[in-house]
Amino acid sequence: MNDFCKNIIRDLDDEINELSIEFNGSLALCEKAIGLTIDKIAKLKQVVLKRGFKDIEEEIHFFKHLKPNVLSKLIYYNSIYKIETKKPYGGEKVIETHLNNELFNLKRFFDNNLEFYKYYRTNSTYLDHKYFVRGKYDIKLSLDTYYFESDHSFSTSHDYKVAKIIANDLIQVYLEDNLSNNIRYSTLKSAEKIKSTLVWTASKTALIELIYALHTQGVFGNGTIDIKVIATYFEQTFNVDLGDFYHTFLELRNRKTNRTKFIDTLKEGLLRRMDDQEEK
Question: pTM of the entire structure?
Answer without folding.
Answer: 0.64
